[in-house]
Specification:
There is one protein chain. The protein contains 5 helices and no strands. By secondary structure, the chain is mostly helical.
Length: 167
Amino acid sequence: MLSTELTAALNKQMNDEFAAAHAYMAMAAYCASKSYDGFANFYEQQAAEERFHGTKIYNYLNDRDQHAKFTEIAAPKTEFTNVLNTFESGLTQEQQVTANFYNLADIARKDNEYSTISFLNWFLDEQVEEEAMFKKHIDYIKRIKDDANALYLYEKELGARTFSEEV
């Protein structure tokens, strides 16, 4: 049985994943409002991925006979200075998620909760990919600067992004 502390932390992370999806949809809306449909698609796919992560935790809590508890989601940031700022905000968000998963892993380790440690390893590996992806996009956009043609091509590339659930 999961400890009260670990259950509470998993519930918090589940809600944080759904809040991250909400924030990514706000980034998508900002991009769409500026006619950056490719970047909007990137964030829509990112939101779908975060909802998938939240659902994984929801299912894990249910599998462990714990009550998944949903909380209110605060309104996300909706105004950005430019597309680069959306990616910087995304990186900051992912870095916080990584810290949260480290905390969860610490609690699970303290509790000798080996099944949860195994479950969390997937997320820890995922966070390495997430942070690296955002850093790469920030580097690319900084390199592009004000080159409208390069930005158009990059946006078109991100517009082709799709999300598929991984097992």
